[in-house]
Amino acid sequence: MDTSALALRTNPIPNKKNLGDSYLKFQFGQQTPAVLSMSRATEVVVLPVDRLTPMPNMAPFVMGLINRRSRVLWLVDLARMLNLPGVETNVQHYNVVIISNESMSLGVIVQSVEGIVRLMPDSIHSPLGHVSSALVPYLRGCILQETEILLVLDAEAILRYAQQ
């Protein structure tokens, strides 16, 4: 038996594309790139504006309610929730990312969805000193790239804030 062939079969060369954790990359607000763990982002929906039911007397970032797969979900403008300029309101549809944990689901409106990226855990750095201190409670960290700072959002913190 060829031992080198056996070594290749039992110890495959790692595929660099598969390294790292999966994240959904999107823009929220006008020029704010961010990622969210795919373990918490359950669905991306293009929602016609007329499918949204506005609710009176709510916080300014709460856009209303939607019915999705026989479940009623709150829909929030993520940028406005984090005290950034909100998404355009004179549009025909919203880009919505459904995030969830064991106890609740929430729809967050984002500017645009860019796809799935893989990131190594050691590439995530502390956001302190790189972003506004008001954003820090909602971040797991940030990734410093050549052309931008990529915010790594904490879905659990966003869900907790939305429950208040």
Account of the 3D structure:
- InterPro entries: CheW, CheW-like_dom_sf, CheW-lke_dom.
- Residues 20-164 form the CheW-like domain.
- This is Chemotaxis protein CheW.
- One of its GO terms (cellular component) is cytosol.
- With 164 residues, the chain is mainly β.
- 13% of the residues lie in helices and 41% in strands.
- The protein is built from three helices and ten strands; from the N terminus they run H-E-E-E-E-E-H-E-E-E-E-E-H.
- The protein has helices at 3-10, 78-81, 155-163; strands at 21-27, 33-37, 41-48, 62-68, 71-77, 93-100, 105-110, 112-119, 139-144, 149-153.
- The strands form two sheets. The chain has a five-stranded mixed sheet. The chain has a five-stranded mixed sheet with strand order 3-6-7-5-4.
- Strand 4 and strand 5 (71-77) form a beta hairpin.
- The model is unreliable at 1-13 (pLDDT under 50).
